[in-house]
Predict the 3D structure of the following.
Amino acid sequence: MADDKKAADDAVVKTPAKKAPAKKAAAAESAEKAAPKAKATEAAASKPAKAPAKATTAKVAAEEVSSGGTLKMHHLRPAPGAKTAKTRVGRGEASKGKTAGRGTKGQAARYQIPDRFEGGQMPLHMRLPKLRGFKNPFRVEYQVVNLDALSDLYPNGGTVTVDDLVAKGAVRKGKLVKVLGTGEITVKLSVDVDAYSTSAKDKILAAGGSVAQD
């Protein structure tokens, strides 16, 4: 009887020892399940924050410029109301769709009338002058001085130059001067200007004067 009791006591004592590995296995399984969750939490924490919206970026840029920051090309914007969309006519009654701004019927509402039509008045191509020659771009303009003017300016003779004529007020500065043969001359003149007429040259030489060779 004593031996049977000892065997029973040993069985009772040994039974809890066999259940201990089962607890360890359950703890290990729960640890394995918790590990992926912890990793996911760490990954979410390590991810960078989302980029701010465009409106936030524009607001920050405006604040930088207003606070004395650097003005960049992408900060530039047209003034409010400066750019308006073009009105598209003939695209439905919501926006000038029926008559497209031409009014109701009549000649101006038809498509046959050309843009150059002026309502029946004399058209531009008939108002402009035609076949009137041309303007020579190589024409040379001279200031004219006649011999009778030289006789009054130089009653005792002398040397006639362009600068001297400008000083006497006979011609304007910076323009070419030509002597013409109107009038008579009796004094000796040495003339040095830009051009001479044939009659002026002959009269100056006949009076004993001279002309610079042009």
In short: The longest strand covers residues 142-146.
